[in-house]
Amino acid sequence: YKNTKEGSNNPPLLNLSLEQGGSYIFEFENFLDLQVCREFVGSALAKSGDAAKAKSGDTAKTKSGEAVKTTSDRSTVTYPDEQLISSAEMELRIKLLRENSELQNLHKKFVLGNILTESEFWATRKKLLDGDSGTKSKQRVGFKSSMILDIKPMTDGRIFALKPAVHRAFLNHMTEKDFWTKYFRAEYLHSTKNAVAAAAEAAEDEELAIFLKEDDILANAVRQKIRRVDPTLDMEADQGDDYMHLPDHGIFRDGSKEITDSQHEQFKRTFLQDLNRQGEVVLEGRTIDVELEDPRTVAEALAQSRQESDENAKQERLDRISRMTEMEDLQAPHDHPFAPLCIKVDPRDYFDSQQLKTSDDTRAGSEQLRCSLSSEEAYGSLRGSISEIKAMGLSDPVVRPEVAVMVLNGLTQNISSTKFQLGKNAQEGILNSLPNTTKEELLHHWISIQELLRHFWSSYPITTSYLYAKVSRVKDAMSKIYPQLEEIKESVPSDLRQQVFLLVRPMHQALDAAFQHYESDLQKRSAKSGDKPNGYV
After folding, report:
1. What is the residue extent of each domain of the chain?
2. Long-range contacts formed by 21-26: CB under 8 A, 24+ apart
3. Where is the composition biased (Basic and acidic residues) (predicted)?
4. N or C end of the chain, less CB within 10 A?
5. How much is the pTM?
6. Of 39, 151, 106, which Cα lies nearest the Cα of 446?
7. Residue 12, strand partner residues
8. How far apart are CA 363 and CA 204, in angstroms?
9. pLDDT, tens digit (0-9, with 9 covering 90-100), for 341-351
């Protein structure tokens, strides 16, 4: 494949050549969309085994189709986690990059900079991709909430939605004239509240009986819903809580309190049944958003829509069950030996917290006590202290006065003075006191460090050569951040360097911890593997 070089006067074009001959030319709105599509094509070719034959072009191609020789600007590497994605997900990725300039900068820096692959970059943003689909409006065009009391022919599919069995009969063996004739006759018989007469006519006409009897499709749907109810739910505990079981409540003449023979029960329909079914259909909404003139066309479109909806609902239910089902042998141990990694999304939390840490730096001559005791030693020390208090009493204060005064001053005077000196008012922090350029650079570096640290720590333990290569790429990218942070500190005025140092220090600490872990892990693997390359068999 070939593409237009960014920065040229030609529009962003992508030329895909076929093995059988011929080609397809795609024109994009901007070069960002072109780069994303090119990455997708590259991963698709690598997945199919044709990556060695693919060539990505850096030379511009004119709109008339004149092509020139191109050179590959990125080596094709097959990664085990690369997957072919759907066009819908690709469109969603492009949309997110357009709307989020920060995400766009990270994508350009790490993906186009050959530090991360497309799948690696988006693997940490599954919630973002799922959340965008959740924000889409799921509301469909609905029916009017009014009951169908003045029956007349309709082509919006409301009757078919209310009565699925009638919908099925209309599709199978009814003309439009017979349908409306029998439908209005059935509605008339129901309005008379005469179940005996309805049963008599239903016995003579099988097609009319479909309109008069209870809807078997709705009954089956209710039974399926009951089977899907949580088996641990105690439904008997709630029985009788509704108002219908209390005296002087409910609609007396809705038909539910009238006595009829059991053999004619299936031909009786109460007003509450109609009301509940109407409410259910209104909440479900219309599955056909356009008005069709032909009732048969409406019925066929509704049937196809219901079939697709049932398939999607079944697949979503299976996916939800698979996500919620836990496999014990695949679960991590409940007792973690270390505290779980927590990288906050908003870097301002780290910057604002530095105001609290300034008290530690301003304490002159304060002793920093660091203790490392085992649980047995700590327990023994506690028992000894308790025994001493029981024997001697609290003759001395629990906390030394000079220590208490030092802590109190650090938590009040130093923090308050730091706010007023650095932020000019109590509402501003250290970050807001810096120039906008320096502030944006610090935020960008901290967001980049967060992204790299996520991929770095998620790659451990290193068990494959792919993870080793990924960690090496991420480590090299993190090592380049150190001189950039030093440049920021040198570029600000001298009176602001102390504040910048306070903001940069947690970045250095996070990077130092990652490099220390990398070196220690590298030494362990080298000791185990001997002279084997990269520590792998």
Report:
1. 2-135, 158-323, 347-362+374-420, 434-537
2. 25/65
3. 52-66
4. C
5. 0.40
6. 106
7. none
8. 100
9. 566 656 666 55
